[in-house]
Amino acid sequence: MLLLLFVLPSAIYSQDFYDNTQREKWLKIAKDNTPALVETIKKPVGAVKIIADANAFQGYKAISSQSVSEVYKKSFKQQSGTVLDFGQHLTGHVTITINTLNSVQDAPLRFKLTFGEVPAEVAVPFDPYTGGLSRAWLQDEIITVMELPATITIPRRLAFRYVKIDVLGSSPYFDFTINDLTCVGTTSAVNTPDALASSTSALMAQIDAVGLTTLKECMQTVFEDGPKRDRRLWIGDLYLQAQANTYSYKQHDLTKRCLYLLAGLAQKDGFLYCNVFESPQPHAQIGSPFLFDYALLYNVLLKDYLEATGDKQTAIDLWPVAKRQMDNITTYLNSNNIFDAEKAAKNGWWLFVDWNDKLDRQAALQGIMIFSMKQTLALAKRLNKEKEVSQLPGLIDKMSSAALNTLYSKDQKLFVSGPTKQVSYASQSWLIIACVVKKKEAQTILKSLQASKNAIKPGGPYLYHYYVQALIDSGLKEDAKKIVAEYWGGMVNKGADTFWEVYDPSNEQLSPYNFYPVNSYCHAWSCTPIYFIRKYPEIFQANSK
Amino acid sequence: MLLLLFVLPSAIYSQDFYDNTQREKWLKIAKDNTPALVETIKKPVGAVKIIADANAFQGYKAISSQSVSEVYKKSFKQQSGTVLDFGQHLTGHVTITINTLNSVQDAPLRFKLTFGEVPAEVAVPFDPYTGGLSRAWLQDEIITVMELPATITIPRRLAFRYVKIDVLGSSPYFDFTINDLTCVGTTSAVNTPDALASSTSALMAQIDAVGLTTLKECMQTVFEDGPKRDRRLWIGDLYLQAQANTYSYKQHDLTKRCLYLLAGLAQKDGFLYCNVFESPQPHAQIGSPFLFDYALLYNVLLKDYLEATGDKQTAIDLWPVAKRQMDNITTYLNSNNIFDAEKAAKNGWWLFVDWNDKLDRQAALQGIMIFSMKQTLALAKRLNKEKEVSQLPGLIDKMSSAALNTLYSKDQKLFVSGPTKQVSYASQSWLIIACVVKKKEAQTILKSLQASKNAIKPGGPYLYHYYVQALIDSGLKEDAKKIVAEYWGGMVNKGADTFWEVYDPSNEQLSPYNFYPVNSYCHAWSCTPIYFIRKYPEIFQANSK
């Protein structure tokens, strides 16, 4: 009976894969690498009218209507619904100033301020809200102004270019003006990226500029996925941001901070959480499903970081995390050495790859696993840790052969995935990036893919990135350039100030959240043309075809 | 030509009736008498359901549903629309605390908090808003909560008993609780009024208690008209509050502060503004129409203050203001010495008397003018200033005779007003308060009034007060008691915690502003039963019929 009194809570029995001292050290290094935020005071550059236009992105466009000073000097009571345009995407805190006009305030005022990254956000009603994510992500704030003059700062940080101001309550007995609107914009991007070659086409230069702004706006005290929504660190976004950063702002300390944050906040079993939060204290989304492909990309990220910086200390420090991620490779491998995606999903793993409900993820995951193993092995070699991952060469061989034997259709000259033998851009791209086939075969596959009518296309920029990478890796340089020009250039031509989280040229209102205004329109994973344009200048900065 | 260069702005030519030194001195005294606000921390006492009930006030009543601790411990996502009841009327600042529940926050939350003085305010939709006053007076505040745990204080001061909390945005991926709601209630009423005689009936004791709360809630750094809406100093409300204060809290310094504020902020021509604001610095509602009856009551207020305090210094100091108000008596007097209400209104004067569009105000104003002159004359006598208002005795006589000759219908035994010879409670009450007729005649008139089917009844508590005063002045004590018991007792029986700005037993949704939820339900001018009950204990505290 006495024994019962000494029974310890189960938490103590289930050991932490990393010990607490290690986690604390990692989190300390993450904290020490927190960048300073640079603040810039921004003012609107004009008032615009948002008008319906079937040819404009999402059916709305902003056209210049009057100067800001004209708006400011007139009674605002007659100007409810005015949209002010800051002329660029901003991330920061907004302050509004309101004054009485030739009269005495006798009652409070009520305003709705709606902040939009794109014109449609300040044009379409948010209610009734049909989205699957919290309605509170939408950036409309209602304020009561009890006393004038008033200078009010909206408590939440906002991400926007346009601000619509609706008067929801005013008194017939006095008049007022809105005198000032100010945004204190923040970013941790301070370095100036290199200039592009003068031979760069105007379109590529524009794409590059929009990509730089996108990345800059997402660079806060971590690489955020989107400054409007989710505003946090996701491994998948980080992987692409770090690549883009290496070829632009070169602020590797921010990458380092993110690598350490993710490590310090890993699951108890040593596998990584797909996303973490910084505030009120660093914490992971405990309880969220394990996102396999993101965990695998952490290793590539670490290897890329080492290559970009030579910072071996960090790589060695975080090696146990990379090594641990490899322990999941065999968890759902079937007897043919093919990833059993169905079983993994059934058991609660999240297989992302792309926002696309129709996508069969088996083949893509097979590719991501092989790619990650190869990169991890290369990392191990650099660190003299090869022996610690001695299982990898054999696994790489077996899984690569299995991919060719089981997932490749010789008739179609395409990889197929899952029980329906689905053909997709995801499968081809990832198995090519993983170098399961040689360059020549990869070209054949990608050409077959382009000719395939039923292939599942990328659902958004995240997978488009890997498709472009696969094209480049296969030597299909002109095709790569064409996709960047058409897809990201398409956003630029539709007026993008920053690249969007979701973009389907054939359905501008596509939303994985069932309500397109809640999409993020400045999204990290879409910034990667700056990586392509700057890493492969011979392809993208050459002003030839 | 040179002369033109020296033309001075017109402001310098139009002299201030009071010089600047005098105004500054008055405002300094007002400032020096600013009371400290006493803060009390209040918590809700229970959760209630607001249910439709045709027999309840305005069709809604609150019934107890569960304890506050039950609300606090459960997920609030499933409790949207919960109403917490603080068990009493409060005026102050509200803080809400929100926490995550067994999960990690992945998105912001959006809440609407609706504060109601009465149940209907948290039951009926505010939009579409049809009211004539600013929609912003309605106490619904929308907040976005970016990060948990959160403790958020609503910026505006609120006046309420009930708080409805609606969840407007939440994430399917985490849960949360509302853990605490706190109101820091404020008032400047610190004294404890005398206990009532033990013989006082339960109803009168209840009426007195509700009246005391009403006055206490309106006692802030001035005597506010209503802590929810308009939240400022109006002469008419102040006149009644000062009377009630004299017989309850006896905080005469607050009356003194208000008298000086009104004086210091008077119109340039020396006549008074009907209302003033304290913040951001003391100022009048410049541009608002001159409210004649309120200006006249300032003098009665000053005389009452002197009587209650013996503070001759203040009375002498402010005598020039009282004296100046008398200069308007003859402005719109016709050749028969009757007030030409139509002409005054046409020229922009505001004649209030009561919220009632149908009311002809001529006879009532004649009464208020005579009453004010008599009280001013009495004040002058106390201050040895009789010579300065030597016109008053003659005017009082002439206007009293005129009232009897022109406004009195011998057939009806009633005063009549205006071209339609309208009979109203306002006319009889004010001409009786002015002692235009002797007690015996006044009784006859009031009995005729009660018998008159077409007499215009009081539109609200402000005029009911004067009707009760007229009944008492005429010796119709039981009638006075009956009105207090029926009218104010009616509010008590309908669940009033504080007395309402507007109350028509036959139309509970009456609103001078075309939207009854914007009415104030804790309104200074309705608190006066405490004055009657405590000034005339032989009538109201005697437990006889």
Kindly describe this structure.
The structure is a homodimer of 545-residue chains. Chain A has 545 residues and is α+β, with helices and mostly antiparallel strands. Chain A folds into 2 domains: 39-187, Sandwich (Jelly Rolls), CATH 2.60.120.260; 202-540, Alpha/alpha barrel (Glycosyltransferase), CATH 1.50.10.10. Chain A has helices at residues 2-5, 10-13, 20-32, 68-73, 202-218, 235-246, 252-264, 292-309, 312-325, 341-346, 362-383, 392-407, 425-433, 439-451, 461-473, 477-493, 529-535, 537-540, and strands spanning 38-42, 46-52, 60-66, 82-100, 109-116, 140-145, 150-153, 158-169, 176-187, 233-234, 275-277, 283-284, 408-409, 414-415. In chain A, a hairpin with a 4-residue loop joins strand 13 and strand 14 (414-415). In chain A, helix 7 (252-264) runs antiparallel to helix 8, helix 8 runs antiparallel to helix 9 and helix 11 runs antiparallel to helix 12 (392-407). The termini of chain A are far apart. The A-B interface holds A 103-110, 129, 132-138, 141-142, 144-147, 149, 155-157, 168-173, 230, 277, 279-280, 283-288 and B 103-110, 129, 132-138, 141-142, 144-147, 149, 155-157, 168-173, 230, 277, 279-280, 283-288.
Provide a concise account of the structure shown.
Chain A is α+β, with helices and mostly antiparallel strands. The first copy, chain A, has helices at residues 2-5, 10-13, 20-32, 68-73, 202-218, 235-246, 252-264, 292-309, 312-325, 341-346, 362-383, 392-407, 425-433, 439-451, 461-473, 477-493, 529-535, 537-540, and strands at residues 38-42, 46-52, 60-66, 82-100, 109-116, 140-145, 150-153, 158-169, 176-187, 233-234, 275-277, 283-284, 408-409, 414-415.
